[in-house]
Amino acid sequence: MSDLPHDVRLVSASLVHPNGNRALNAVSLALAAGERVAVIGPSGAGKTTLVRVLATSLKPSSGGLAIGGVDPWQLGAEALRRLRATIGVVHQSPPIPPRLRVVTAVLAGRLGTWPAWRSLASLFAPRDAAAARGALERLDLGGRVFDRCDRLSGGQLQRVGIARVLCQQADVILADEPVSALDPALADLSVGALVAENETRGATLVASLHAVDLALKWFPRLVGMKDGEIVFDRPTAAVTSAMLHDLYATEGRGLPQQGVVVDRGARHANVVALKRPGCQ
After folding, report:
1. CB of 214 within 8 A of CB of 189?
2. Structure-derived torsion over alpha carbons of residues 76, 77, 83, 85, reported in degrees to the nearest 10
3. Top-tier CATH class for 1-86+205-280
4. Which of 26, 221, 269, 276 has the fewest Cβ atoms nearer than 10 Å?
5. What pLDDT is recorded for position 6?
6. Nearest by Cα to 56 from 37, 33, 75
7. Which tens digit of pLDDT belongs to each residue from 46-59?
8. Of residues 13, 66, 37, the one with CA closest to residue 208
């Protein structure tokens, strides 16, 4: 995409829906270019709304947003389109037309940079099927490249949505519960593929995750949200088991986990904390 990945800055941003529901309340968040952050918290905490605001899908009711030093809401239509082409969004339920072929759905990640004629031609004859296959192979879907999307499970469609963003090579990747329909092994594989984009290309990565173990394993910084507010923003090594249990106390059960996580050096203490008696 652009020569350098984007930094992202949200300043005292609030969002109130037309029905009066306040989804975000004076949220401030600074993300350095190339940083990797997980946003965690109980259902209804505001995680999805935060991702949509960062993606410029929702305009804050108050406060400010800057991406690469630019206020997206001060841009004209064409400049905003170009900015959005540098942002890759992974949806929990990808908006993929069921009759679309997988290869076409993945190559949709390139539409923001292709001219109109190439985008139209790719619907009939995929212009870069090899790139689509490569992205799908990273997610254990290499054999489904020419299948129709309505023949895939919900979990497979989630991985197609991730493959689309991998193919896009976005400067900023925003993932909203990207592995909620996957088993532990595939969830780990898929989050690892997104992390690889951060580590190898320097893409800024923000992932909203319900599973605490995945956040602890893969992300060096955790942002905890509850009731539309940020309640902590710390390096992962500084997040304690007590802080996590307090964050999820309203859910009335143990910490949500995708599955068993593997030791990753500095994060091991946090992973072990989840496995201790009383922390399940």
Report:
1. no
2. -170
3. alpha beta
4. 276
5. 80
6. 75
7. 999 999 999 999 99
8. 37
Question: Which pTM does this prediction carry?
Answer: 0.87
Amino acid letter at 223?
V
Conformation bin of residue 93: beta by default, left when phi > 0, alpha when psi is -120 to 50: beta
Strand segments, DSSP code E, in 32-117 are 36-40, 62-67, 87-90
Helices within the chain (DSSP H only): 47-54, 77-84, 102-107, 116-124, 129-137, 154-168, 184-201, 212-218, 241-247, 268-275
Query: What is the C-alpha to C-alpha distance for residues 12 and 211, in angstroms, rounded to an integer?
Result: 27
Q: Which residues of the chain, if any, have pLDDT below 70?
A: 1-5, 112-127, 259-280
Q: With contact defined as beta carbons under 8 Å apart, do 274 and 280 qualify?
A: yes
Choose among 63, 54, 58, 116: nearest CA to 86: 54
Query: Residue 101: beta bridge partners?
Result: 148
Would you say 55 and 5 are in contact if contact means Cβ atoms under 8 Å apart? Answer: no
User: Three-state SS for 40?
Assistant: strand
Residue 190, both tokens: 């898929």
Say if CB 88 and CB 174 are below 8 A apart. Answer: yes
